[in-house]
Amino acid sequence: MDASSAYQNSLPISSDALLRQLDDWDIAYQLHTHVPLRTVEDAKGVEEQFMVPGENALRLKNLYLRDKKKRNYLVTLQQDREIDLKSLGTEIGAGNLSFGSADRLLDNLGIRPGAVSPLAMITGAEKGVTFYLDAQAQDADVIYMHPLVNDRTVAMAGADVMAFFEKTGVEVRWV
User: Fold this and answer.
1) Is this model's pTM higher than 0.85 or not?
2) Residue 96: CA atoms inside 13 Å, Cβ hemisphere, count?
3) Which of 36, 39, 59, 46 minimizes the C-alpha distance to 152?
4) DSSP per residue, 85-99
5) DSSP assignment, residue 137?
6) Which one, of 9, 5, 10, 3, lies nearest residue 31 by Cα?
7) pLDDT in tens, 117-153
């Protein structure tokens, strides 16, 4: 099964339900639809469709990781940031980081590969996933991310992203 909105009703929380929840919380976002994106390179191919010239935007890559103690992490970074899992593990105090499986991704974040997003913490917070966000997010005017499916992108002001984390009980740790 792919990670597009065509299959969103098979997720614990659908993209539509997430967007309704954001509306109910008065958290602003701008929704963009596009072809399904699975990689940063795919995303770079469509960014010009909705990016605003001159805006201080944070475009993301997301890593769902596990350590040797079977703790789960979602690490969200600026899309071009180079990452070394060993160094990252040292920085966050986790040893032997590796990518989590597709089954664990669905169990712990309620999403499929290709749609990994900080917004998946709406499920991840309840499942004990630890969340790390690139410190560059603190200075971004807008953050672009998938709303649980990979054929949609939402643009949200940094303050609105932080409001989402507050509403969902997510502790943001900076990396």
Assistant:
1) yes
2) 5
3) 36
4) HHHHHHHHT-SS-EE
5) G
6) 5
7) 999 999 999 999 999 999 999 999 999 999 999 999 9
Instruction: DSSP letter for 101, please.
Output: P
CB of 147 closer than 8 Å to CB of 31 = yes
Would you state the structure tokens that stand for residue 6, as one six-digit string?
């065509």
pLDDT tens-place string over residues 41-98: 888 888 888 888 889 999 999 999 999 999 999 999 999 999 999 999 999 999 899 9
CA-to-CA separations, 135 to 23, 50, 139, 152, 158, in angstroms, rounded: 26, 24, 8, 24, 12
DSSP string for residues in 114-135: T---GGGHHHHTTTT-EEEE-G
Cα–Cα distance for residue pair 111/38, rounded to 1 Å:
13
